[in-house]
């Protein structure tokens, strides 16, 4: 996408060039943002499915004072240790 914009700028006049350059800069930001957003959602996905204690398949438990991702045995253990019913 960015390369296409650059290629287009070569055939344009001064005005077009400025416009293309502006879009090109925006293009970098949007791509960087997309990468960051992708990394965040991947981390959220990971942290939302893997038990924090044993690394097995778990679930995000949001119905507690702290949000934790735990599998069933670790949740039971953690609740006992922290006296959460
Ligand atoms: Zn676990």
Bound molecules: zinc ion
Instruction: Specify the biggest β-sheet.
Output: 2 strands, antiparallel
Helix fraction by DSSP (H/I, runs of at least 4): 55-70%
Order of helices and strands: HHEEH
Please state the CA-atom Rg, rounded to the nearest Å: 24 Å
End-to-end separation: 54 Å
- DSSP, total strands: 2
Uncertain segments are 4-26
Number of helix segments?
A: 3
Strand order of the largest sheet: 1-2
Envelope shape = elongated
Describe the structure.
The protein has 85 residues and is mainly alpha-helical. It has 2 domains: 47 residues; 36 residues, no CATH class. 62% of the residues lie in helices and 7% in strands. The chain has a two-stranded antiparallel sheet. Strand 1 and strand 2 form a beta hairpin. The structure holds zinc ion.
Sum up the structure in keywords.
single chain; 85 residues; mainly alpha; two-stranded antiparallel ribbon; 7% strand; binds zinc ion
Structure summarized in a few sentences:
With 85 residues, the chain is mostly helical. 62% of the residues lie in helices and 7% in strands.
Write the layout of secondary structure elements.
Layout lengths: L1 H9 L3 H34 L11 E3 L6 E3 L1 H10 L4
Antiparallel strand pairs: 1-2
The protein binds zinc ion.
The site of zinc ion (ZN) has 9 residues, from helix 3.
